[in-house]
Amino acid sequence: MSTKNAGGKIRFGLMMALGIIVPGLIKYFLTQIGYSMLGTVIFFTLYLTAAIFIWFVWIRPLELTGSSEA
Q1: DSSP summary character for residue 55
Q2: 49 contacts 18 by C-beta, under 8 angstroms
Q3: What's the predicted TM-score (pTM) here?
Q4: Which of 11, 6, 1 is nearest to 54 (CA)?
Q5: pLDDT higher than 80, residue 69
Q6: Alpha-carbon distance 37 to 14, whole Å?
Q7: CA neighbours within 13 Å on the CB side: how many for 26?
Q8: Among 55, 45, 16, 14, which Cα is nearest to 37's?
Q9: Helix H or strand E encompassing 51
C-alpha cells in the first residue's frame, strides 16, 4: 500500500464502518428502550445517507469506461 493514497483509503474505510455501525447501534438502543419504529426509521435514514455520501464522494468520480477498441 503506497502512502500516497493511504489517507483516502483510511477515510473511505472509516466512512464505510461508521455508515454501518452507527445507524445499527442507534437502532439497537432505541429498540431496547421501546422505540422500535423510530429506530428503524433512523437506521434506514442514516444508512441511506451514508450510502449516498459514499457514492457522491468516492464512486461517482471514478472513470468507469472500458477499452475503446472494438
Answers
A1: I
A2: no
A3: 0.72
A4: 11
A5: no
A6: 27
A7: 17
A8: 45
A9: helix 36-54
Q: How far apart are the C-alpha atoms of 44 and 57, rounded to whole Å?
A: 20
SS3 content of the chain, % helix, strand, coil (to 5): 75, 0, 25
Query: What amino acid is encoded at 66 in this protein?
Result: G
33: which DSSP letter?
T
Cell 472509516, residue? 14
CB 9 within 8 A of CB 1: yes
* 25, three cell numbers: 447501534
Residue pLDDT, tens place only, 5-21: 788 888 888 988 898 89
Q: How far is CA 70 from CA 1, 31, 66, 67, in A?
A: 34, 55, 10, 8
